[in-house]
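Team,

Forwarding the record for the chain on the shared tracking sheet. I've put the sequence and predicted structure together so nobody has to dig through attachments.
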Amino acid sequence: MSIRGLAGAGTGRRGPLAAGLLAGVLGLTLSGCAGFLVPAGEGEPEPTPSDPYRVHADKLPTPFPSASVPLPERPPAAQGPAPTPTVPAGCPSSGVVVDMGEVEAALGHRAVGLSLTNCGSKPYRVTGYPSVRALDEAGDPLPVPVNPGSSYMGSDPGPKEVVLKPGESVRSLLAWVSTPTGGDLIEGDALEIAPAPGLEGRTFPLKGNDVRLLDELNMTAWRATP
């Protein structure tokens, strides 16, 4: 029904009731269009003032780096027993090795220098005389006397204890007479030299007919100097 119909219904005149109804309808119509007549921004709720003590997630500062917590130290691994020093290759199990130099001649006398060297890895105690034997062609010992002491080629001050560090050496002088007029001579083919009786020795051939004749062997004690 239109507004005009309401106004003219019944008698054709506007009575109090019709006027009241018309006012109510107009009020409803205007209230429904109020949204179109209110300027933008008016009638909306005022924004709530920001709380200065409220922190937004997007405003949070970058987190501090987390402090590193040191890990507990591992207990040191149990150490086994210290390794046993090994003897270098070519060194006898005794830890010392002997050597013989060139034979020297003087007026029918012969002399040769002997050396004993600590080839091991720990100190070695030396005292006394070397062990010397004359050998025949087959390597068997010959009945040649071996005397500790002085000779025409050198004097013997006697044994003295020496402690050799690895690589250090001591020396001895071995001498004999090698002339047909020197007495009963035995022809030897080699000399066997050892650091001391009972220790491993080495064999050195005697080269030359003039040094192979032996009467007796005289040797000095191991000393740090010749």
